[in-house]
Amino acid sequence: xxxxxxxxxxxxxxxxxxxxxxxxxxxxxxxxxxxxxxxxxxxxxxxxxxxxxxxx
Length: 56
Prior knowledge:
The chain is an alpha+beta fold.
């Protein structure tokens, strides 16, 4: 299962720190529920996407 959240701001300077819980706890909580959390700039442009992939 894949969950994508898009944001119009392309910058995410502390993404890894946010996922580790060093910059708030939102992404840390998501990551500790089991999914792999990543982020990327979509090919279409217009911001960034944070993705959580939950395996079978």
